[in-house]
Amino acid sequence: MNILMVAAECVPFIKTGGLADVVGTLPKYLKQQGHDVRIIIPKYRQIDGIKYNLKTLPFRLSVMVGKEQESFRIKTCMLNDNIPVYFIENMRYFNRLGVYGDDNGIGYGDNRERFIFFSKAAIEAIKAIMFRPDIIHCHDWHTGLIPAYLKTTNAHDGFFWNTSTIYTIHNIAFQGSFDAASTVPLAGFSWEDYKSDKLEFYNTFNFMKAGLAYCDIISTVSPTYAKEIQGDAGKGMQVVLQPRKNDVYGILNGIDYSYWNPKTDTNIVANYCAENFENKSLCKKYLQEKCNFKIDENKFLLGCVSRFDNQKGFDLIMDSVGTIQQVGMQLVVLGSGSREIKDGLLYLQHLYPDTLRIFTDYNEPLSHQIYAGTDAFLMPSRFEPCGLSQIIALAYGTIPIVNKTGGLADTIENFSQSLFTGNGFVFDLYAGEKFTDKIANAYDIFRNKFLWNKLIQNAFNSNYSWDSSVKEYEKMYNIAAQRRLNYTIYGI
Ligand code: ADP
Q1: How do 177-179 and 301-308 pair as beta strands?
Q2: Are 114 and 86 in contact (CB under 8 A)?
Q3: 37 C-alpha vs ligand 1 centroid, how far in Å?
Q4: 270 DSSP assignment
Q5: Could you tell me the strand order of the sheet in which 217-220 lies?
Q6: Are 214 and 193 in contact (CB under 8 A)?
Q7: Which residues, in sequence order, are CB contacts of 313 under 8 Å at separation 6+?
Q8: How far apart are CA 394 and CA 465, in angstroms?
Q9: To bridge 283 with a disulfide, which of 79, 198, 231, 372 should be the other Cys (CB 3.0-4.6 Å)?
Q10: Ligand 1 atom closest to Cα of 386?
C-alpha cells in the first residue's frame, strides 16, 4: 500500500510530545511490512537543514488562505534511510521560535491560519511529488481539514480517487475550535458544508470535528481511551464518535526499543540491561549528583518527564511533595509548558532544595538520564490517551506510579506481593491521598530488595513494541481501502 502520514510533529526532526514519537516510529514498522510510507510535516525553524541534509525540490507552489496567496517550497530527506520525509517550508508560518506557541504554553494567535495553510499545502505537495496514496493518515487537529478538503473542495480531483483517509486522535483535549463566521471562508469551505453532520460543531468551526466527520476510519491510541472518549471524557466530541462507533479503533502505541534501550543508550553514564542491571545504580548516582541531592543508593528517587499541562496531574504531584520530603524521598522533574505549573514547582523547589529538583526546558538527553537514573516514575495524569513515558520508564527498569486512565490502564498493572505479578502501581481515583498512598506503597516494596528486583524484572519483561500494533494498523488501513473501493466502484 502507499501510505502517507501527515502530522505537525515527527521524531527526530521536531517533538513536543508523544505524537512525534508515533509519527516517526510507526512508518518504520509499516515499511518492514512492505508498504511504501512517506511523511509530510512543516519545516519549522528548529529543523536543521544541514544536520538532516535537506534537499529542496525544484518547484514553488502556492495555496490560498482566505484571500491571501501563500507560497511554499518542499524540502526532503530520508528517515531511517528508506522513508521519504517532505517538509512544507513557508517562512511566515513556520519560521519562528516555538512550534505551537511561546515558552509559557500560550498558543500562537494564528495557529488556525498556520494549519489551514499546512493542510492545503500538504494536499498540493502530495500531487507535486506524484505519490498517489491509498491511505492518507492524518494526526490530530492540525491535519483535520485534510479529510474534509478531499470530500468537499477536492472531491472531483481524480488524483485522490482511490485515497482513503484515517484520522487519529492523539489527544481529544486539543480540537482546534474557532469562530465559524471567519473560519469557513478563510479555510475556503462552502457554507453548504457548514452543517451539524459536517463542519459545524456547537456553532463553531472545529478542525477535529471536520476530520472526524469526513474521514473513512477513526482511530485513537489505546483501547481504553477509545471507550472513554465515546462517553464523558469525549470533551463534547462523543456526539460525533458515538454514531460512528463501528469506525472507531483503539490501537495502543508502542515505543521504539532500538532507541529507548538502556543497553545502547549513549545519553546515560552506564549501560545496563534486563539480565544485568547493576549499572542502573551508577545512573542513579549520576542523577543524584546532577540534582544536588544526597548521594545515597537507599534514597527512593522519583522522576517525572512531562509537558507542564493540567492533563498531567501536576496538582497531585505538588500536593505529594510535602510527603516526599518528610519521608526523605527525592524527586526530579523535567518539563516545559504552562507558566503556572512551572512557577508552582519552582516555588516548591525553593522550599525543599534537598528533595526536589526542577528542570524547565525540553531536554532529550536529560530525559534519558531521568528514565534510567530514577527508581520510580510519576504519571498521575487526569486523562492519558496512551502515554509513552510510562512505557519508556518500564524499558529502563523504572517503576511507573500511575492513575488508572486511558493507556495507563492498558499498560500498567498493580504489583502483587504474593503473586509477583504486575509492573507498577495504579491508583483508581484522582485524589491526592490515593496518589501519595501509592507512593508510600511503592516505597515499602522498594525497601524490600527481593520484591523490588522482582518488580524491576516485570518492568523489563513488559513489551509494548510496535510489532503487534502495526498489524492492527494494517487491518484498519485495509478496511478503509476496501470501503473506498466499494464507494468508487459501487457507489456505496
Ligand atoms: P504527551 O504526548 O501527552 O506529551 P506521552 O507520554 O505520550 O505524552 O509522550 C511524551 C514524550 O515526550 C515522551 O517521549 C517524553 O519523554 C517526552 N518529553 C516530554 N517532556 C519532555 C521534556 N521536557 N524534555 C524531553 N522530553 C520530553
Answers
A1: unpaired
A2: no
A3: 25
A4: S
A5: 55-65, 68-79, 83-89, 36-42, 2-6, 135-139, 164-169, 217-220, 248-250
A6: no
A7: 379, 380, 381, 382, 403, 430, 435
A8: 12
A9: 372
A10: 7
Q: What is the dihedral of CA 115, 121, 125, 131, to 10 degrees?
A: 60
Q: Helix, strand, coil: what percent of the chain each, to 5?
A: 40, 20, 35
Residues in the chain: 492
Return the residue whose CA atom lies nearest to atom 26 of ligand 1. 364
Burial class of residue 365, CB neighbours in 10 A (0-12, 13-18, 19+): exposed
Q: How far apart are the CA of 311 and the centre of ligand 1, in A? A: 13
The pLDDT tens digits along the chain (492 residues) read 999 999 999 999 999 988 999 999 999 999 999 999 999 999 999 999 999 999 999 989 999 999 999 999 999 999 998 999 999 999 999 999 999 998 888 999 999 999 999 999 999 999 999 999 999 999 999 999 999 999 999 999 999 999 999 999 999 999 999 999 999 999 999 999 999 999 999 999 999 999 999 999 999 999 999 999 999 999 999 999 999 999 999 999 999 999 999 999 999 999 999 999 999 999 999 999 999 999 999 999 999 999 999 999 999 999 999 999 999 999 999 999 999 999 999 999 999 999 999 999 999 999 999 999 999 999 999 999 999 999 999 999 999 999 999 999 999 999 999 999 999 999 999 999 999 999 999 999 999 999 999 999 999 999 999 998 999 999 999 999 998 877 766 665
Rounded CA-CA distance 22/226 in Å is 17
Could you tell me the three cell numbers for 196? 451539524
Q: Are 423 and 459 in contact (CB under 8 A)?
A: yes
CA of 335 relative to ligand 1 center, distance in Å: 8
Going from the Cα of 17 to the center of ligand 1, the distance in angstroms, rounded, reads: 4
Q: Residue 64: CB partners within 8 Å, gap ≥ 6?
A: 70, 120, 188
Closest atom, ligand 1, to C-alpha of 170: 2
